[in-house]
Each structure stands twice: as C-alpha cells, then as structure tokens.
Amino acid sequence: MALPIRIDIVSDVVCPWCYIGKRRLESALQTLGEEVKAEIVYHPYELDPSVPKQGISFSEHMEKKFGPGRSESMFQRVEQVANEVGLDFDFSQLPKAISTFDLHRLLTVAYERGNQAETKEALLKAYFVDRIDLTQEAVLLQVLESAGWDKKEALEILKSDIARDSVEQEMNYFRQLGVTGVPFFILNNKYALSGAQPSETFVNALRQVIEESKPQVIAQADSCDLGSGEC
C-alpha cells in the first residue's frame, strides 16, 4: 500500500534550479513507484521583487546583477545540468526577466481549483523551454488555458487583488522559517531539503520517511505467531 506523503515546495517560476529540482523529484517518485503517494503543494517565493511588472531585458538584468563574465559561465552550467534531466534551456534566448508575484497569485488560486501542478509546469515550460514573454497578457492567458484555466476566470484574477494577501503572508512565513533560497522541499512537515538535490537524495529521504512511518516495537511479550501459527 502506497504511503501518503505531503511534499511542500517553495519555489519561483523564474528559478531554473526549481525546474531542474522538480524533474529530479519526479524521477525519484517514479523510482519509488507504488511505495509512496505524493501530494505536492507549491508555495511562493520571489527571487527578485524589484523587477517591474512589464519586465526588463533578461541579459541586461543578469549582467547588472552578476557581471557579464560570471552570468555567462553560470548559465552554461545550468543549461548543461538541465539537459541531463531532459530540459532544453537557452538563457541567451530568454526575452525578459519578469515579475512573478501575479503568477504566484494564480498558483495559489490553482491549488484551490485543483490544477496547481498543471499550472506550475505550464508556466515553467513557457518561460524556460518555449522562452515566451509572460508579461504579454494574451500569451499568458494562452498558457493558462493549456493548464485547464478558463481565460476569463484567469483574467479576472489578474485584474484583481485576489490571493495577494495569501501570497505575501506565505512568503513572509517561509522567510521567518529561514528559507533564503529555492527550491526548498519539506517532506511531511518534518524533513527539509534545500536546493535541486540529485534524484537519489530524494529517494533516500523519502524512504527514510517511509521507514519512520512504520510502527516501532518498544516491548515484546508472549504472542501468537502469524508465520508459524504457534501460540
């Protein structure tokens, strides 16, 4: 019987390691198969709240943030690792650095709607693999439609303040917990893994949760044995 395990993931849509970590976790869950039944819940984290709503040039923003030499070598490594998990990253083709606050509002509502996983994957793929400009309303709505959204409903959320307080409160909560980088994984509200861990690390951590879920015998006395039938 599969053990139910809740996995809370603190992440940002524009974090490449969050996408890589997502793929590595998925690989781990595939390895475990029927040993676990995972409930995955995504939580908001803004890597750069200073980015304006209309976005800014990705290359210029990264050069300003890290310096031209460092950003280029850093992204080459990320592209290589992404390729190893089947993701086609090309940072030179990303049109914009974008604000993700509204995307987190959508993801918060998506959890209540039951399509958070689909929405998260669609947004990550659109940004990193398809490399499209998510600041364009029509484009974003098309992406959301592919994840099971009604365009009108999504637009109403974008035009409103729905889930704004929830997103801000969650981000404050995880900052207070000491989360300073993403992705950040919490297993059954007990164990935490920081960063895009290798799949094997996820497998080992999840198996530890499985082991600890089993009853621990703290005392033994006379009993009937199921195997031998003796009492």
Describe this structure in words.
By secondary structure, the chain is α+β, with helices and mostly antiparallel strands. The protein has one domain: Glutaredoxin. It contains 9 helices and 6 strands, in the order E-H-E-E-H-H-E-H-H-H-H-H-E-E-H. It has helices spanning 16-32, 58-66, 68-84, 101-113, 116-129, 137-146, 151-158, 164-176, 199-213; strands at residues 3-11, 36-44, 56-57, 96-97, 184-187, 191-194. The strands form 2 sheets. It has a 4-stranded mixed β-sheet with strand order 2-1-5-6. Strands 3-4 form a two-stranded antiparallel sheet. A hairpin with a 3-residue loop joins strand 5 (184-187) and strand 6 (191-194). Helix 1 crosses helix 9 (199-213). The model has no long low-confidence stretch (mean pLDDT 95).
What string, H for helix and E for strand, traces the elements in order?
Answer: EHEEHHEHHHHHEEH
Main pleated-sheet profile:
4 strands, mixed
Going by CATH, the architecture would be: 3-Layer(aba) Sandwich
Mean pLDDT: 95
- Helicity level, as a percent range? 40-55%
**C-alpha end-to-end distance:** 28 Å
Low-confidence stretches: none
Structural class: alpha+beta
* Number of distinct helices: 9
> Radius of gyration, rounded?
21 Å
CATH topology: Glutaredoxin
Based on CA inertia axes, which overall geometry fits? elongated
- Order of strands, main sheet, comes to 2-1-5-6
Number of DSSP-assigned strands: 6
